[in-house]
Amino acid sequence: MTDDKLLRSVQRLSTALARMERQMAARGGVSVSQLRVMIYLQESSADGIRISDLAEDQGLAVSTMTRNLALLEKKGWITRKQGAEDKRTVLIALTDEGREVAGGLQQSTLGQLNQGFRAFPDDDRTERAGALDRVAAALENADETD
Q1: Which residues contact 113 (CB under 8 A, 6 or more apart)?
Q2: Among 11, 28, 48, 105, which residue has the fewest nearby CB atoms (within 10 Å)?
Q3: b (16+ CB within 10 A) / e for 59-89
Q4: Beta-bridge partner residues of 80
Q5: How far apart are CA 63 and CA 49, in angstroms?
Q6: pLDDT band, very low/low/confident/very high, at 145 (cuts 50, 70, 90)
Q7: pTM of the model
């Protein structure tokens, strides 16, 4: 496979995943950024995450993250609380309702992915997962060396 073909394949996969993510976000009544934040919080500590850490993880400015969080807070899906060690720290966590919404969105996403993967035999899925992991690792490594 040529480098151009590999690049087109990765771009096609990226486009398909972005489309799916936009559809899931629309179903949940949130933006893609808000969807990503909710899923990240779903998978994180129940104690909460600092806004600056969320922003860094998501590749957003703190001000952009703050606006996204304000909308999620208005829906009742996140809560802000004071840090236990440093009272100046604000920690963000999902409310019970937010956890339910995030879990539903995450399950919908996984269900859609699983439906697509059913087209491949089990042993083929394992081989493709390994290949995708290697592509992701190579891209992450390339990003770190720039």
Answers
A1: 20
A2: 11
A3: ebeeeebeebbeebeeeebbeeeeeeeeeee
A4: 92
A5: 16
A6: low
A7: 0.77
